[in-house]
Amino acid sequence: MKAPSAVLLPLLAISAFVIAARAQVGAWSTYTDMSDVRSLVIQDGTLWAATGGGVFRYDTRSERFTTYTNIDGLASIDVRAVAIDREGTVFVGLSNGTVNIHYAGKGWSTVPDIARVVDKPQKGINVLRVHQGFLYVGTDFGLCVYDPATRSFRDTYLKFGDLPAQACVRDVFFTGDSIWVATDEGLAISVTSAPNLQDPQSWRSFTVADGLPHKAVLHITRFNGVMVACTASGAVFREDGRWSAAFPFLGEVAIRASAVVEDVLFFATDKRLYRAVSLQDAEPVGPSLDEPSYRGAVIRALAASSDAFFAGTNRGVVDTHTDPWRFRRPEGPVSNIFRSLTIDANGRLWCATGTTADSRGANCFDGARWRNYSVETSELPTDEVACSAAGPDGDVFLGTWGMGVVRILPNDSIELYNPQTVPGFPGIVNDSLFAVVSGLSVDPQGNLWTLHYRGTNGIVLGRRSRDGKWRFYRNPFWDDTYLFGTAIDQMGNKWTWLDYSYTGVMTFNENGTPDDLSDDAWKKIDPSTFLAGSVKAVATDRFGDVWIGTNLGPRTVFNPAAPDKVSRTCYNTRCNVEGQNITCIAVDPVNNKWLGTTSGVFVLSSDGSSILAQYTRANSPLIDDVVTSIVIHPQTGVAYIGTSRGLSSVVTPFVQPSQTAELRISPNPFRPGIDDRIMVEGLPEGAVLKILTISGDLVAEIETPGGGVGFWDGRTRNGDPVASGVYIVVAYQMEGTGVRLGKVAIVRP
């Protein structure tokens, strides 16, 4: 495998929130939704939250957020638990078993021991508790004890009394010299002074047979001098040697969290917060989250101090003193699922969040701020958005699961195209009003092409011309087709791929006569053509070649006029991606191919003969190895990489070649030993750089990546550092055209 060029794509240079083309090449950013709050802790007016998108810190006085992701030192962004000690050291537990520790003013450190355990298939961390200088770590397989002073684990408890071994631990509570452990299989108690807590006989266990309403104990606390166990079917308290029902009026409802504040017990179900001064009765606090305005919010955690009380929900944190409740979360996307990515004519990134019950519409990112388009925040008719495409007039099209196409105009007004608004617009075969659009493409003339999943009467494609006229096309092969994506090549062929009983490709060409169906050309390409691979993605490169991604690797059609003439793409050892499960394909401005796979990202050279770079979680800040979508911003060179855990981006030199005569050189002056290298922007396509002295002597000649950016390290052709002075930078195309000039000063310290 060819190693990535240090000039082109350094793998490990890290910098957050880099968007502009002048940003450091190789710099990474992570963008995640931090609204799914799983655990909370508050101390000295600062709230810490563990979320499905990382960790955030919220200053309750200034109301400012600080976020932490893998870019900032977390081992992963899927965080389940958080705790804090008296010195302000913060501990967080991740779903992969890693513990990250934040020392005030020193950043994050990583404790990977649990994550490296090989004999435990499930090793996520569910709860953290600090007690007498030790960190108690409740995992999917038991309880571990970590000593921060020695930075080592002391003990692991796998079996508690008569409970099944390796039960999932949900909570830990200390009272006096007793330790209580809540698990999915029941509750256990022991004394911290026991000689061997690894011995199951050191624990007394409680199950449904002993009076618990459910074996799954979610949370435990102490109130009015007795222990309270909150389970998946109500709460009980321990008094006079037996368990009795607490708050019987609630019935069999899960109690998710609790907090005791000044002799008052607060506890939460999925939808309500309650306040209790006894164990028999409680009164609601705040609204019921069943109200439509709260749109599916559920409570997952509570954090309280003498002057603040917050609830953590799947939609952010809530100051419970407010009325109505207002959900707060850090700036960012509102979903961690990025099914489709598009750059519009104004340079904004659009992200489709998918077609599940957790979908949140579409996100839009302008390089600084995020905006959500959903049922809640806009006139979007559904939150299930499958795909997106940029229109020619600054508009954006969204394909939805059930409501057809949504067009968002530059003024943010919305138009809907579906069976209710467009005659002939197809629904699915068993519901003519339920219109699923699973693919969108815009051709060079500005026509929108729509792909119809299971379209009625065999309709698979629609065409909306730039003037708003629609035409629909019925395929000659099937009446019920499961279509999942579309692309257009330079000869006007519309490529669609199927993923059901038939897993091949179908192409269509209207031959420039959209209203004359007699000359329409349809072709069915059998899966065996792709060496039995199941097609997942299709893209056309800048040479007109069609790249096809399958679960067995990439394939290429070098002549779109013969779409069934498919070649194996990687035919030498320098391009070893055969066998990779390709999930998406993007072509950057200099024709490199970005292959998203279930094993990270591969960047292939323009001709596909070699690997320029490979990005995985192991060698880069890529947020997840299962990649769902990729797009490269043509003006900034930023490659956005979508996953089901969030969005990663990396700054590349692969930008659209400049159409102006201006060279932009930075830093200028250049200080060797202080500055890394000189970046030259505004190059013509395929430019070569020559560095000359003021008197015209040649100093260096440099080939560029092919886009609008090139680099010089301040050295001669022989690798020697140049002297201080002013140098002429000449950029020209190989045929001698497109000559552009600039100057740079070299200042040696």
Give the topology.
Blueprint: E1 28-31, E2 37-43, E3 46-51, E4 54-59, E5 64-68, E6 79-84, E7 90-94, E8 99-103, E9 107-111, E10 125-131, E11 134-139, E12 143-147, E13 152-157, E14 169-175, E15 178-183, E16 186-191, E17 204-206, E18 217-223, E19 226-231, E20 234-239, E21 242-246, E22 257-261, E23 264-268, E24 273-276, E25 283-285, E26 299-304, E27 309-313, E28 316-319, E29 327-328, E30 340-343, E31 349-352, E32 362-365, E33 370-373, E34 385-390, E35 396-402, E36 405-408, E37 414-417, E38 435-442, E39 448-452, E40 459-464, E41 470-474, E42 483-488, E43 494-498, E44 505-509, E45 521-525, E46 535-540, E47 546-550, E48 553-557, E49 567-568, E50 582-587, E51 593-597, E52 600-604, E53 611-615, E54 627-632, E55 638-643, E56 647-651, E57 664-666, E58 678-681, E59 687-693, E60 698-703, E61 709-712, E62 725-733, E63 740-746
Antiparallel strand pairs: 1-56, 2-3, 3-4, 4-5, 6-7, 7-8, 8-9, 10-11, 11-12, 12-13, 14-15, 15-16, 16-17, 18-19, 19-20, 20-21, 22-23, 23-24, 24-25, 26-27, 27-28, 28-29, 30-31, 31-32, 32-33, 34-35, 35-36, 35-38, 36-37, 38-39, 39-40, 40-41, 42-43, 43-44, 44-45, 46-47, 47-48, 48-49, 50-51, 51-52, ...
